[in-house]
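Students often ask why we bother encoding 3D structure as a string. The short answer is that it lets us treat folding as translation between two languages. Here is a chain of 513 residues written in the first language.
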Amino acid sequence: MNQEDLFKNIISHSKEYGFIFQSSEIYDGLSAVYDYGQMGAELKNNLRTFWWKSMVQMHQNIVGIDASIFMHPTTWKASGHVDAFNDPLIDNKDSKKRYRADVLIEEHIAKMMGKAEKEVEKAAKRFGESFDEALYRQTNPRVLEYIEKAKAIENTFKNALELNDLEGIKQLILDCEIVCPISGTKNWTEVRQFNLMFSTQMGSVSEDANTIYLRPETAQGIFVNFLNVQKTGRMKIPFGIAQTGKAFRNEIVARQFIFRMREFEQMEMQFFVRPGTEMTWYDYWKSTRMNWHHTLGFDVKKHQFHDHLKLAHYANAACDIEFEFPFGFKELEGIHSRTDFDLKKHETYSGKKLQYFDPELNESYVPYVVETSIGLDRLFLAVLSEAYKEQILPDGSQRVVLALPFALAPIKAAVLPLVNKDGLAEKAEEIVNALKYDFVIRTEAKDAIGKRYRRHDAIGTPFCITVDYETMENQTVTIRHRDTMEQHRMPIADLKAYLDTHVSLTSLLNKLA
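And here it is in the second language, the structure alphabet:
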């Protein structure tokens, strides 16, 4: 199956099993806005809880807040979003489709590098064990040509971005002969900037301003509360403030399911450090966050670091942790050294000092900040993409299984009566009632037991607990494992301890220790 078909199947599966629905679907939907169904809401909540526990509960020097979505409009003037929060857009005159010009160029660069990798892969197959990959990369003319072209485009692109040279960006698109994926033509409009913030009206923010914005990021709520948290929490540098919450961006080019939406959720942590130590902490959080992703059980090759070509106005270092989605490597989490830009800007615009008195140095200063910022919806999509499996079993039958990490699964166990008679269903309900205080447990009796197994495979339930006639005799049940489909018997009295060991978030958190 090719990656495009796989992605379509994942989207279809998401709706069929109650993970994600198109928003306002009965009214033909709302573009780039989605609702999380009963299974999706549980999975999303589990991901959010895992992040929160690993970030706040596991660190003595990180605390969490919940800042409001609406903020004083001067906040966004100070942060630079009013003047600089733009995307370079370009339209194809034939297809009437709109694209982000930077994405078109980045995808072209990725294709060039992909061609180089294919040359290496073909050579590896041709030469077998005698293949010297490092030497081949250094000497093969075609590999070198692809890499040199990609780097030349990258450098030109970086210079154009830094100069905000929109004509230069368009010319690069033309020089690279980038065509519209729909029309196949190079009939492009001029490149222009588009501000991504949603604005709305509030009764009266002040005498002369009643236009406010839906926040495009959650970080500013942390910065304006820096002193509140530091003083009330008696926090000593280095320390962090974490937050999860909704953000809003008027994405003109929103596509790829829930990867890029207009309403989305962020999980961010701002780590306040002594100036001059920020690069040490930047490297620390790069390593720590990559390790966090690896605890989810992904193949390590699914993640990679990508340094930013153009640094944001607030950063002196920035990179992304990219994940290999079915549509290629894309940003999953950003790690940024934000310097003291945000706090100093808020000092200037508010007229209030936002400084920390360092007792070790006996001086006050504006702290530097290292940020980790991950999109919860993108993480959801990454986990879903990696977990979705279509399998052909030894007997020739097929199944779809969502091989989620056990601790993240929406339903931790299903208690299934073998048949819906002779008191088996009532016994199943009794077991559910005993376990539901600690785990999300469900029971169902409709359909043959095999069909129920398959349904729970498809939603990622780690264990199916079967109540049969032997259960009524000796108080034991059969536990079926989702991934292996192996079964064994266990006393009902041992179920809670067994599930505690295998499906609690502690099992994931222990990997971070």
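Translate back mentally: The chain has a mean pLDDT of 92. Keep this in mind for the problem set.
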